[in-house]
Amino acid sequence: MKEKSQIEKNAEERQIELLSTALNEASNAGGHWLNAAGKGFPKFYPRGVAVSPFNGLFMALHSDRNGCKTNLFTLYSDAKARGTSVREHEQGVPFLFYNWNKYVHRNNPEDIISRDAYLKLDEEVQKQYKGIHNREIRTLFNIDQTTLPYVDKEEYDMVLLKDGSAVERGYSEADERRLHIRFNDFLLKMRDNLVPVRSDGSGMPHYETDRDAVYMPRQRDFGHYNDYVQEALRQIVSATGHQQRLAREGMVMKNGMGPSEDALKQERLIVEVASGIKMLELGLPARLSDKSLELVDYWNRELKENPNLMDALEGDVNNALEVIHKAERGEKIEYATMRNRRQTSDMQEQLPKHFYVADEIRKHPNKEDRTIVIVIDPSSKSADVILPAGASPEVDNEVPGMNKARIGRALRREGIENVRFFNPDGTWGYRPDDTYFAQKQISLARLKNWALEMLSTLDITPAVKRADEIGFDQVQMIQDDKNRWALYLKPEHQSGYSIYPDKDDLNRFFSTLKQSMDNIENVRMELAHKYYALAETQPDLKVDLFSSGAQDIDLNRIQRVSVFKTKQEGTLCVATIDGKKLQPRSVTRQQWQRMWVAEDRAKYKCHLAATLFADVLRKGQTQEVTAGKRQEEDTQQQDKDKNSKQADGEAQKTGSSLKELSIKDIPEQMYGKYEQIKEEQPEAVVLFKHGNNYYASMYDAETIANELNLPPSKERVPYDANKIILVFEHDNEETRQQIHALRAYVMDCDGMSKAQQNGPAETTDEENENEQRPTMRR
């Protein structure tokens, strides 16, 4: 989760303070905790713009806390612009403002567009995108906290008559009747679109998860109509948490067992807050039930100690009320399974059809053998007869031995009522797709006198199954390197790929995984079929999470990769690149998981090494690219100094024997010292001096090229870590300064001195005393 700013933390503390205070005071107010005065739902003044449920909650709590007569709010700048400024020393309420200025594709997180681009899309295409919210904290003030009541009292009095408390509005019996009509209409919409609401004689209101129904006692069994309304709302809010809707943890059975005690208590808080906000929408006061009053201390402690509870409460409350609002608008709230099946079926209609069965059938009708193919549908008592080529289905156009009237009579004697005739191809060709043949019987037959002789049957089960329902070798949720969840699919006989699911499907998958393991396989396959159909209709949604994605890296330079876990350092990756085994680098949990899911594990490990050691691989390629440029610069320098040019020619001549020389072929004493240095300090740079030139192994040459931006002055040759090449020409002051900058070990091939054997070249006593031997980082 993204770390909150200090402004967001302060806003959350203020929200917790308002909610905790209201819950604490409920026990002394007959259970009433919200909107005791019966004000309307909070809005912006004077435009009347509505706010989200969670924002409305805290605006109303703020209004209650300060004794305001309305739930109308304004920004400080807007109040000042109207000439009704906020009074001194007034504390506002935080407002969570979401700026929807970007939109992301629901199944492709990389596809992000601006709001302007989104508005230009067709309505159907817009449904494939969702807004990316950027949360900002604004501060609102109630109009009673401004100078409006003093600056324009007439306007203020009119506002009270319209949006004030029940007393200010003059609540009457007519208002009570309108409330009854409004709530009865609400219950009818819930019954039709969300959950059945039934009468129950037990006197105990409850929601049954198994039957997915709300049971309410008679209205007269409640002391007050408001109590009846809120209890019905509590049960309807509970219904939104059903496994096939929002799948809240406190509403889901786990392997036949009820939710945990903590989950039940949190669910109770969601129900009380959401039903309270819905009461606020109706302009009614909200109160806590007797059971909920016992949980106030627990809730307040959790609100203060659990840093994620407020965010979870915001999401759960807003989602629950959004489901109810959809049902109010007449939208049928389908079970998630039914919705996914419908979406899958719609997408499957767009998939390419398969005609394996029809192609097989056309091979069998034969005029010489007088054989025909009969496709019988027992359920509809119909049959399709495929005649050989040249036998027209038209009347009076017969082939000897294949009279259509006789065939029809023979089939009717077997109970077939409707018979149709076809050719293998052409105008009367028979070519239904494979799904057509489900539950049908296909036989090769011959007309013998007045009866049909069945010669053989055609087994079409595999083809129908393949066309009707794809099988999967693997279905797994995996994470990419940005911690985003993707669904990995490996269809039978096909290559695997990943696709990013919708947020609703992700929530349902993980809630099912966490809460009811016995149902997870059904959900897994349901999502697999849905996103397979989506990927087939929109192939650009397929993503590959098993490659490095780097186009500029030569994977052939990676010889060996090993990935393993350690107790101290976690998961590590060791790679051998260009013949040199590199130091291990850390592997993330997501990369480790993908390794075990990958079809080709060895290939994935190679790509993983390319990702982790990309800097090493790119350095080697940079050296080769710049080598030609360095050689050209050296040639120009030789032209300027003829004497140097002659010396250079001699140096090249004497050094040519070392240009492609193996390190192991240098003098034994020198090679032993080289091995010792590399063993003690693997990243140290070692130079070999031969004549007036300096040579280094290809691996050290790579470091020199990158550290000093001086590529080796030699022609490009195949990379070999065991060869030494020319890196510096001439033994002059400039060369020695460059060697000094590298703090490299220098070994004289023509006769090493003791000082050169024991330490870095060209270092002063002061440097050796104050500084340990540095290592070159590659």
Automatic annotation (TrEMBL):
GO terms for biological process: mismatch repair. Residues 203-308 form the Polyvalent protein metallopeptidase domain. The keyword Coiled coil applies. Residues 28-129 form the N-terminal domain. Residues 627-651 have a biased composition (Basic and acidic residues). It holds the Pfam family MPTase-PolyVal. It comes from the Bacteria. Keywords: Coiled coil. Residues 624-660, 752-778 are annotated as: Disordered. Residues 670-715 form the DNA mismatch repair protein MutS-like N-terminal domain. Residues 2-29 form a coiled coil. Transmembrane segments: none annotated. GO terms for molecular function: ATP binding; mismatched DNA binding; single-stranded DNA binding. This is DUF1738 domain-containing protein. It comes from Bacteroides cellulosilyticus CL02T12C19. The lineage of its organism: Bacteria, Pseudomonadati, Bacteroidota, Bacteroidia, Bacteroidales.
